[in-house]
Design brief:
- GO terms for molecular function: ATP binding; protein serine/threonine kinase activity.
- It catalyses: L-threonyl-[protein] + ATP = O-phospho-L-threonyl-[protein] + ADP + H(+); L-seryl-[protein] + ATP = O-phospho-L-seryl-[protein] + ADP + H(+).
- Its EC number is 2.7.11.1.
- By secondary structure, the chain is of the alpha+beta class.
- Helix content is 34%, strand content 15%.
- Helix 7 packs antiparallel against helix 9.
């Protein structure tokens, strides 16, 4: 007997952990403007009808996920996100589904993608970059303590919250690995660590490598190993061919050079990135207030007044 594709997708969703407090459906939300579109669906600004809670609703089509054989990736992302609580990690609230779609209820990041902000500004100053380095390092320290490796850190997967704080998002390539060692090639070309390109086992230090690449791109406006072809990019990464423009400050050069080490175990640890003199001097990180009150979605909403 043939099983329809939408039923296959349904099985996928129903096999996820039953951590939800309420059975949600699309009628529970007022759908607003689109926030972004992708290969498998789109993200919309949404308001929960009863509480007026503002959130981002990520809509994914089951047929597209099934065709690309990415059902397991969605399952993994939900399983991982449901257990993460950190001010610099995009909050996952819940999920629901219908015959053809899966809906992820996510924290709304009012200032959008870091990628678009970087395109607009061309590059960032020392203060802004150092602040981002402290925030992303703290988020990754938390992830790694939970045995989670992100594996796809890049400006497109970093969002900006209400106060401009960094929010790590898109855990589709992440993995919860008890041993913290993997061999799968994943992530974005410019941000791949040498050991991933070589197909060697890798651990949480691939995320540390990405922090160094991100720091360089924030300051310079382009990735450090960018090249006309994928093959040349890989070659530059494996050789760690690092060249700094003259305007990059010495403190930042020192930090990036210590992070982008070919040997994973010799990369500057995340805690030491946060404590690096350049980061300590330039960062203006402001921790968000802790809210005890909750609403119908189970969390405090910092963006209740966001425009729909």
């Amino acid at each position: 007997m043939l099983v329809p594709s939408w039923m296959t997708g349904m099985k996928i969703v129903l096999s996820l952990p039953a951590f939800k407090l309420k059975m949600w459906c699309l009628d529970d939300f007022q759908i607003g403007r689109p926030l972004g579109k992708g290969r498998f669906g789109a993200v919309y600004l949404a308001r929960e009808q009863k509480s007026h809670f503002i959130l981002a609703l990520k809509v994914l089509f089951k047929s597209a996920l099934e065709k690309a054989q990415l059902e397991h990736q969605l399952r993994r992302e939900i399983e991982i996100l449901s257990h993460l609580r950190h001010p610099n990690i995009l909050r996952f609230y819940n999920y629901f589904h219908d015959r053809t779609r899966v809906f992820l209820m996510l924290e709304y990041a009012p200032r959008g993608e870091l990628y678009k902000e970087l395109q607009r500004c061309k590059c960032f100053d020392e203060t802004r970059t150092a602040t981002y380095m402290e925030e992303i390092s703290d988020a990754l320290i938390y992830c790694h303590a939970q045995r989670v490796i992100h594996r796809d850190i890049k400006p497109e997967n970093l969002l900006l919250g209400l106060r401009g704080e960094l929010k790590l998002a898109d855990f589709g390539w992440s993995v919860h690995a008890p041993s913290l060692r993997r061999t799968t090639l994943c992530g974005t070309t410019d941000y791949l660590a040498p050991e991933m390109i070589d197909g060697r086992p890798h651990d949480e230090n691939v995320d540390v490598w990405c922090v160094g690449v991100l720091c360089y791109e924030c300051l310079v406006g382009s990735a450090p190993f960018d090249a006309p072809t994928r093959l040349e990019t890989f070659r530059r990464i494996k050789e760690v061919r690092l060249v700094f423009p003259v305007w990059v400050p010495d403190g930042a050069k020192d930090l990036i050079s210590k992070i982008l080490n070919h040997t994973p175990s010799l990369r500057l640890p995340l805690k030491e990135i946060m404590e690096h003199p350049w980061v300590k001097c330039k960062s203006r990180r402001i921790l968000p207030p802790v809210h005890k009150d909750v609403n119908a979605c189970g969390v405090h909403n910092a963006a209740d007044s966001a425009a729909m």
